[in-house]
Design goal:
Strand content: 25-35%
Number of domains: 2
CATH class of the largest domain: Mainly Beta
Order of helices and strands: HEEEEEEEEEEEEEH
Number of strands: 13
Structural class: alpha+beta
Length: about 200
């Protein structure tokens, strides 16, 4: 039979392991960053511009909707629906977009109103202007979405990608991060139970 202090120590260690694993999974799940455009980005009009992002692998977000907004003007430009999140990048072709230095992108689940991320404020130049520094070149291996004109929230998305099937049980979406948390907790409980029973026997 194991001493009681060892059993108590192992039980507390198991609890700590579960708690730390839970928070590490949460940190990974909540990581969703738009890298480009950045605060210094200037997008030329009538040209394709690259958008890039990084996200957590356990967040359960397989796709999102992309919108563009301005701080000084009401309205949204609906860029793309069901953007594949794992893709990591997409090109946006601007056509006669009003110039301004107060644009930002929004990554959102527009069906449920869940905000995933927003970009830094960036600039869209007039058609006759050139950027002071070269922005990242468009990536020919990913799709290009074309948007034009002033913000119009009543318009449809410029592009709609095919919906991506996500994990579900009985029609209820199960996010992968919660499956991971459940697995970690279950392992901790089983190991702790085995240790305790082994000490008693």
């Amino acid at each position: 039979m194991r001493p009681q202090y060892l059993i108590n120590l192992f039980a507390s260690s198991t609890t700590a392991f579960i708690v730390l694993a839970f928070f590490s999974l949460q940190a990974s799940a909540n990581y969703f960053v738009i890298n480009n455009p950045s605060a210094s980005t200037q997008w030329p009009n009538n040209a394709a511009n690259l958008v890039t992002w990084q996200k957590g692998v356990l967040d359960g977000v397989d796709m999102f909707d992309m919108e563009m907004a301005r701080m000084s003007t009401d309205g949204l430009t609906l860029v793309a629906r069901n953007v594949p999140a794992a893709q990591g990048k997409i090109n946006i072709q601007l056509q006669d977009i009003p110039p301004g230095d107060d644009y930002f992108l929004i990554f959102i689940n527009s069906t449920h109103g869940v905000l995933h991320s927003t970009s830094s404020r960036f600039t869209i130049l007039s058609p006759s202007a050139s950027p002071s520094s070269s922005p990242p070149s468009p990536d020919g291996s990913v799709p290009t979405v074309t948007v034009s004109g002033s913000p119009n929230p009543t318009a449809m998305f410029a592009t709609t990608f095919p919906a991506i099937a996500s994990g579900a049980l009985g029609g209820v979406r199960v996010e992968r991060r919660y499956v991971g948390m459940l697995g970690v907790s279950l392992v901790g409980v089983l190991v702790g139970a085995g240790w305790t029973l082994g000490g008693v026997l």
